[in-house]
Amino acid sequence: MTLRILLSLLFLLPALALGEARKVDDYQWEGVERVVAIGDIHGDLDHYMATLKAAGLVDKRGRWAGGETHLVQVGDLPDRGPDTREIIEHISKLAKQAKRAGGHVHSLIGNHEVMNVTGDLRYLHAGEIAAFETSKSKDLQDRYLDIYLAQLQETDPEAYAALPPNFRAQWKTEHPPGWLEHRQAWDPRWNPEAEYAAWVMERKVAIRINDSIFVHGGISAQYCGNSLASLTERVVEGLKNYDPAKPGILEDPNGPLWYRGLSGRQPAALPETVAAILERHGANRIIVGHTPTFGVVWPEYGGRTVVVDTGISDYYGGNVAYLEITADARTAGYLDGKLPLPEGDASRVEYLEAVIALNPDNKKLLERLERLKNPPPVEAAPPADAEAAGEEPPEPLICGTS
Fold first, then answer.
1. What residue numbers bound the domain in which 133 lies?
2. In the chain, how many domains are there?
3. pLDDT tens digit sequence for 320-364
4. Which residues fall within 8 angstroms of residue 36, CB to CB, at 6 or more apart?
């Protein structure tokens, strides 16, 4: 072997040792050097951008600066704030910029994306409607009402006659300019080509990057045996054929969009279930959003689950924070510094005190610290019916498939 060949091999060694990010399938990636996870945004463009900048993912112009980093936004871009449309447009452009740089942007499906598609607008902010208003919105309102009233008069004269005299004005007050355009953009029942509905259905519910699973709400014992692909497939199928009488996984409190049992909320997942989920997917931890921590990237189950919904939106306090995962460390990033994430529950007090030192005016964190130091007594659960009848209670479900 010549000296030239030997030298060329030596130059190749670092690249071979480092490896390259590899897409296993649509739901799994391996060999990613840096992963940044951020929580629910809820319509707050300013704090969304502040979080991306704090993590070094965008430049001053808001363009991708994260290189080969994988960004995971765990869902719930809409509702509670006015900037949903701008945020979706930005993160869509950011995904294209990241891809050109060798990075990736994963924006997952949250329960609020689903709510907007299915017409559950309880948390819709007025600014989200106003973002769709144009100079033609008032004319659109009148045309829609003309058609609606004409059809109602023809098909149900009694209902038409029972309408209050001020129905038209009342309807316009309840559905301001931009509302119709919002529904046309989000709801396939209003518009089969609804662009934001299509955007949601292109997202994933859960993914795995290296040894971490990312999902909006969580994975419960009932869904522990499901593949990552099946979770997305079922949600997308539910959106395409939405039936309000049978919402299924879209509204299941144990489903991946709504479940809170991995975030410290009761009823909490059994440790055996967490272990089964990790074993099922070949992972070491599960990253979730959905449950606000009001200012702290928070580990549960000895670091096997991590909650990243820090309340980035102004609605929840504007708590800018992110989780950074590399081969060497798991770090929580804040505006005023970065802290190593505790690997065990015993060191959470020290960690939380360090987070509070960065933000001493956060009363929610002080309350969390007090509960952590002085947990309330655990009340005994009432006996199950079988136990009360002198029978053996059923074994708790550890890992099933729904």
1. 126-190
2. 2
3. 999 999 999 999 999 999 999 998 888 999 999 999 999 999 999
4. 55, 57, 66, 69, 70, 71, 72, 322, 323, 324, 325
218 with 364, same domain: the answer is yes
Q: Quick check: is 40 in a domain?
A: yes
- pLDDT 10s digits, 248-257: 999 999 999 9
CATH number of the domain within which 235 lies: 3.60.21.10
Does 230 lie in the same domain as 170?
no
Residue 8's contacts (CB-CB under 8 Å, 6 or more residues apart) are: none
Residues 103 and 168 in one domain: no
Do 206 and 308 share a domain, yes or no?
yes
Domain boundary (171, 190, 209) is at 190
pTM over 0.70: yes
